[in-house]
Amino acid sequence: MDKYQTPLYDLTIDKQIYAELEATRQFEWMDVQTDEDEHSIEMHLPYIAKVMEEYKSGFTIIPILVGSLTPEKEAKYGAILAPYLADPQNLVVISSDFCHWGPRFRYTWRDPSRGHIHQSIEWLDRQVIMYTILLNKQDLVWPIGAVGSDAAL
Question: Which residues lie across from 66 on neighbouring strands?
Answer without folding.
Answer: 151
